[in-house]
Amino acid sequence: MAETAKNDKPNDNEITVLSDTPTKMVVGERGLAFAVYVLYLLGYITGITAIIGVVIAYIQADSADAPVKSHYIFQIRTFVIGFIYFLVGLLLLNIAVGALIILWALVWSLIRNVKGLLALNRNDPIANPESWMFGD
């Protein structure tokens, strides 16, 4: 029995090999892309959630499969272009055209987010994620 107990001890020279099976993610790729769209929509009220959304999209874009990657690219471009529209609108707010540019930025980004959500729900990629308009 003493010999069995001796063999049960781990040997200092043994290497423990971890399993090659991937761990199951809490939220899948499509779920994260959906979350980014929701964060963008909440961003109309809070502002900060849109920043969180673009960070998630930027981090996940490289590792996503092609259909979901098109959504992440679309989301990143929606944030960046929308931010540029908003800044230009703010700069031109003293002349009446600034308010129109800000209004356009809000409508434009809302349409992009809704179209992206609908495409994601159908499990479709964004046809042209680098589009300046609505991804068609």
Describe this structure in words.
The protein is mostly helical. It has a domain at 28-121. Helix content is 65%, strand content 0%. The protein contains 5 helices and no strands. The longest helix is centred in the middle third of the chain and has 26 residues, at 66-91. It is elongated. The termini are far apart.
Rg, rounded, reads 23 Å
Structural class given helices, strands, pairing? mainly alpha
Low-confidence stretches: 1-6
Mean pLDDT: 84
Largest β-sheet summary: none
Tell me the number of strands. Answer: 0
* Global outline: elongated
N-to-C span: 74 Å
Helix content: 55-70%
Strand content: under 5%
SSE run: HHHHH
Helices and strands in order:
Layout: H1 2-8, H2 29-46, H3 48-60, H4 66-91, H5 97-121
Helix pairs in contact: 2-3, 2-4, 2-5, 3-4, 4-5
Q: Could you write a compact summary of the structure shown?
A:
The protein has 136 residues and is mainly alpha-helical. The protein contains 5 helices and no strands.
Which descriptors would you attach to this protein?
single chain; 65% helix; mainly alpha; 136 residues
